[in-house]
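Appendix B. Extra example for self-study. Work through it before the problem class; the solution is given directly after the inputs so you can check yourself.
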Amino acid sequence: MRKSRTLNLGTGSFVLLGFAALFFLTTQTTSRGLSWFGPPHYEVTAKFDNIADLKVGAPVSMSGVEIGRVTKIDFDSNEYKAVVSMRLNERYNKIPTDSDASIYTQGLLGGKFIGLTAGGADTYLKDRDQIDFTQSAFVLENLIGQVLANFTKSKADDQSQASAPADSKTPADSKAKEKTK
Amino acid sequence: MFKELWESFTDALEGLGSVVHFLFRLVVNSPRALLRFDLISQQIFNSGAFSLVIIMLSGLFVGMVLGLQGFQLLQRFGSEEALGTAATIGLVKELGPVVTALLFAGRAGTALASELGLMRATDQISAMEMMAVDPIQRVVVPRFLGGVISMPLLAAIFSVIGIYGAQLIGVQIMGVDSGSFWSQMRAAVSLSDVSEGIVKSLVFGIACSLIAVYQGYYAAPTAEGVGRATTRTVVTSAVVILFLDYLITAAFL
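Solution. Structure tokens for the complete assembly:
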């Protein structure tokens, strides 16, 4: 009897340890783990011209604080726009209806996320509302294309010396603008 | 020449067929073996709990190496904060299941094969048959199920210890910010990465345990036969694990 007791004890603690490890992996290393029974939330949508590589599960932040996550990305074939549904924490329920949503990039090559900037309206966003003011993702390729086009054009105009440095500044400028907006 | 090749080909096919047949017999006998759970529990202890030390030590060192190598590599791009993501994805999806399965084949698979082979060589299996005890149900299935249950748990423990090993090197020694180590990991690792690892370790558990009990059960009843069964267990398990790893990775992409 003694022997089988220590044996069962060993097996039991091994299995417990194993399941503790599985639990750790599913809840602590992933973002989604506990969101099924997460905090109360409400859902709003926003239509974007271009979402670049925004993914489901991307954070939605306001002043840099994460207030929700993207739950669904759809395509509206009437308006040719991307419809992004996001789930916001019920705690943050005083977001003005005229707030605007923009898509930003984390770091230089990081993933995309949605940043909300508060508007001035007295009414607040409710479940199933839509954010009307949106700004598309900053697509690096388009920007490079523009810079190259300007560069070649200005070369053709034989003004390359004056405009090339100005052109090379545009990405930084527009990025800064986007940040301050 | 062609005849020999053809014969070795048909031999290989026959071997594969008998493995599949053996697996079928194990599966059919599993529900009844579950009624005697004490036998399975004992095998979980033998192949799982006894492998714990080697799994934890290897996990720690693999994680520390990942931390060091990952840090050196990521530093070149100025993104050391991604170390947590890199180490966790590497461990949970690949290294955890695969290294655990290889170690399991070496630690527990060989023990299973030589135990069953010796039982065969000393006629214990025939004796059971004489006493109308089904050796498959009494001896083989508990060992098989014990291995299948142990493997995902061992792989999960390996991954967790490995993540802490990477954290130890990256955060404590190399000075990566602890907050971004964990938060970037949480943002980048999805539940499907973890479930891929679990599926892998389950499949490897079935494959490793099946190979071990098959080789042991059908070992030639001599000292040499037992030795050969043990060797074959490790070699076949390693090849099958890496092959299955490729298949499952491709299926999850």
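Self-check: The first helix of chain A runs from residue 2 to 28. If your reasoning did not lead you there, revisit section 3.
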